[in-house]
Amino acid sequence: MAGDVMCQLGGRRLMLTTFLVSIFFCAVHGFIYGAPPDSCGNPVTFHTEALNETHVGQFLAQNASTSKYKLVVEKVSYHNKTFGKRKQSDIIRVTLKAAPGDFFRGFFIQATRDNYPLDSQDRPAYGTFRSIDSNSQPRLCRAAVGQVGGITHTGNNNKTEVSVDFILPVGCNLGDIQFVATVVKTYSQYWVDVRSDPVSPIGFQGQRSLLCRLYYDPFNQRLQQQVLQVLRRLQMANVRQPAQPSIGAGRAQVNRPVGPLASQGLQQG
Question: Which CATH architecture has domain 69-234?
Answer without folding.
Answer: Sandwich (2.60)
